[in-house]
Write the structure tokens for this entry.
Amino acid sequence: MMLEAAGRRVHVIQGEFKVVNDPDVVLSTILGSCVAACMRDPVSGVGGMNHFLLPGSSTSPASAGDATRYGVHLMELLINGLLKQGARRDRLEAKIFGGAKTIARFSNVGEQNAAFARQFLLDEGIRVVGESTGGEHGRKLEYWPVTGRARQYALTGVEAQRAIHQDQRPAPAPKPVESSIEFF
């Protein structure tokens, strides 16, 4: 059994994205029906993760609400964050996780989330190098953005209920924008 050096863990919750270039950082999240897209530029050594609740679309009126819940918004934020840190779009690669159907009697929003992520990445010309989506159980995900390594654990029983609860928590309220403009 190989022991891993302890790295700095950064948790990505629903409605967030993180971009890092530190090889000692591992990004982690817990997914039920939500999806996390993990992207990186293997040459520049920068990578990141997002965590979205609903697919959304640029033409959907629902997306005009709390944008941080929607994949269309968080995918753009993640890509732009990577580019700002020196990644090149033509070198980006992605892995997709989550999208479980955790509650049988509800519509399969997890499947819709995963399908959205696949189509978005295809439309953007970003290569998908790994995917683990669907199923009936949540996942705990760890992603090392600099190397692209990912590890997941299936959540069953109590862990699955915790993942469902995590997915149903509201996203954090957006921070107010600071401005030096005074309106009167």
